[in-house]
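User: quick one - fold this with manganese (II) ion bound?
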Amino acid sequence: MPSFSEVSAALAQQAIELPSWAFGNSGTRFRVFPQAGVPRDPFEKIADAAKVHELTGLAPSVALHIPWDEVEDFAALRRHAEDLGVALGTINSNTFQDEAYKLGSLASQDDAVRRQAIEHHLRCIEIMGETGSRDLKIWLADGTNYPGQDDLRARQDRLAESLQEIYAAIGDGQRLVLEYKFFEPAFYHTDVPDWGTSYAQVAALGEKAFVCLDTGHHAPGTNIEFIVMQLLRLGKLGSFDFNSRFYADDDLIVGAADPFQLFRILVEVIRGGGYGEDSGVAFMLDQCHNIEKKIPGQIRSVLNVQEMTARALLLDRDALAAAQRAGDVLGANSVYMDAFYRDVRPDLAAWRESRGLPADPMRAYAESGHQERIEADRIGGSQAGWGA
Ligand code: PSV
Ligand code: MN
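Assistant: Sure. Structure tokens for the protein plus manganese (II) ion:
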């Protein structure tokens, strides 16, 4: 197995984008649980994200959600981020909260609704120019609840047409990433339910369009690492939305439900050339922290990704390939499992210290008094929430 020092240069390339909405109040379909100290505007969300980066060195950018993060002056928001040591990242569109989108957005049969949804995306692209963002991420709530409700084929065709118009506005150096999800809020069918549909749509658009894989958006038992391998093989894996799920789209802390699955995914990412500065695969979190504090929730999350990345980098690929060639089934499996069971936490703590970071970022945050400070300072105003 490679030594830890052999993988430390690769580890230094890790960058995990944080979602601005992770810092706002969130909840379930049944209740939103307000927390003290939650940001009241996008500037405070950026400050929280920057805190995560300051303590971990892992989260140099923040994804924005439009219109939740609309501000008068995006250049000022960008400067604010840069002053705090982070960049503004992916712009997420939102066509799931307006009354107009009840029966769909980009796939709607209503011309005026489709126009509204397309214009919203064009506005997002305009914002990307101001924020310096590379990626426009599209997740659609489009779908139907009942068989016969709408024509499945016509919806797919309209979606393709709408996406074409949006794609035409994507500039040089920018990308469109299309996320899939197999259910919710539409339950009979969704218009982009799986990687195959997303792939078919983005392949038709062109080379600046990619698939976004949200780990929570699969049926139980799905072999997600196979999908990762296939999309990398096809050159169309654009980004990850990392989170954990126990049953459905829970948006829980990545690596919490099944660290082994995260490991397996990262093994395929590295195998397929999807890891590192020039890979073109963006690592993002898509999570909400409903019952735990948000900043430490995000710190835990990026550390979980880092830990499984380190283990995946430590996989002895030569030994694995030799065992595979020899048809040594159990030998290959034990090489694989050896990497997964390697406890990298002490090495990572030392590695962090050597870079001027706290050995234990969770503890450093707890001891910093920062949480108490924001809870005392952020009084008045209205708190940001998932959906605001
Ligand atoms: C809804 O499922 C969702 O979580 C999607 O995964 C998006 O990425 C996210 O919301 C933000 O729009
Ligand atoms: Mn997502």
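One thing worth noting: The chain has one domain: 14-307+357-377.
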